[in-house]
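Subject: Major facilitator superfamily (MFS) profile domain-containing protein

B.,
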Amino acid sequence: MADAVFPTQATAQTRYISLFGTRTRFVIMVLILLCLTSIWSNILAFNFAVICMDDDDSEVETSLNGTRKTHFTSTQNSLAMSIVAIAALLGNFPIVQLVGMVGIRTVFAGLGILSAVSTLLIPLSIRMGFYYFLAVRFLQGIAFAANFPVIGSFCAKWSYFKQNGLFVSSLVAYVQLSPAITMPASGALCSAFKWPSIFYAHGAVSLLLFVTYALFYRNSPQKHPFVGNVELKKISIGKIATVDKRALKKVPYGPILRTPAIWAVWVAAIGNFTCVNMMFLFSPVYLSKVLGFPVHSTGITAAIPPFLQFMSKLFCGAVSDRLTCLPEIIKFRIFNSIAFIGSGAFLTVLAFMGDEHKDYNMIVLGCAAAMLGATTGGFFKAGPVLSKQYSHFVTGNISLGITITMLIVPFFVNALTHNNTQEEWKWVFLITASVMFICNIFFFIFVKGEACEWTSDSFHRASSVADLERNSVRNPTISTVSRNVEDVPEKL
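Prediction pasted inline below.
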């Protein structure tokens, strides 16, 4: 009876472990997926809110010649998107460093709350003035810089090696899950209330998710009270065991940056996110202005391509783990080529279609999005496989792909689509397809199928010996240690 009311530590831990059995890592994966989705949704909410603002008669003024004035000009829309990318670029390296030093629990929780608060402040900032709004968008961009470092760090520490593809594909799918949720939700909020409700709802949900994350997450499975020995042993298979925490925090930047296979991953990210940002930042505009979908249905229609891509990512990630008959390098090349060439081919078809049959345009756009989901078996999976314990840096810098293209894509799309006609959008689709084709060639040539040499125990032992020998020049008393380091048994 006393144990039921005041359980011992052992009894309490047994109850914790029994709650999720040996599946705690999956619960955490889902929680992180929702948090990642929330940060990206907070950013994307603006893209639909703009349409809602322009359709709101109570908010829009009328100019002297009788035409309706919008809240934002085309240039301001581009700046509103690009400022997020600039902030993410500026925050990328410091956040990667912070993740390596203190882990993602504190960093991600803090930045997630920052994203939530800044989203709640957007309606006020818009009414105060455009530059106040840009400042709040800048804060959203700083928070967004954490997303890919978080994915890399979590997968490196929490994923079982046979489920690496599933974990990576599930988490990177936040890019598609966000618009799949945000577009219809924003459409419903816009119809039921007014555009400020879009930001208030997103900010409130985000705040709730990140408070939950801060309370539940731990930086390693060993520290989590819900993880038992069975699950812990499974997770630890294939993890590096002989390098201490100080060595792990010392990222070998030089060897990483001299590795062509790592550059192949980053270049592929440029190709992927050129297409993703074109589709998901501008699909509401294309659907409403070019194809003529009404505002109340644009949200649901715009959610179809990202939803198809989300499902495709989960499927391809699971399939890539189960294709054990093929070497990893072959799988990387096959899945990445299916994604890039397949998606580019459908975009090329879409470029030469008219706008008379909008349902057919939607089908082709949906197919282009779905094909791109195969990237989870391509460069997305290659990043953690190649970099292992340094995945927070390599996978984290995949975020440069999304931020660089987020900076460029709005300007080239707006420059080509002054009148939002199908003929103008033809060049947007063709340029996007060309970029994807070129990036896939680079990835196909230079990617590898096994972990890089700088992830191995031997590399770190050699590095430790070199450091000791350099120090022994300045401090001869440690020279004896340096001579004996190589004699340390492998099991220690």
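The radius of gyration is 24 Å.

T.
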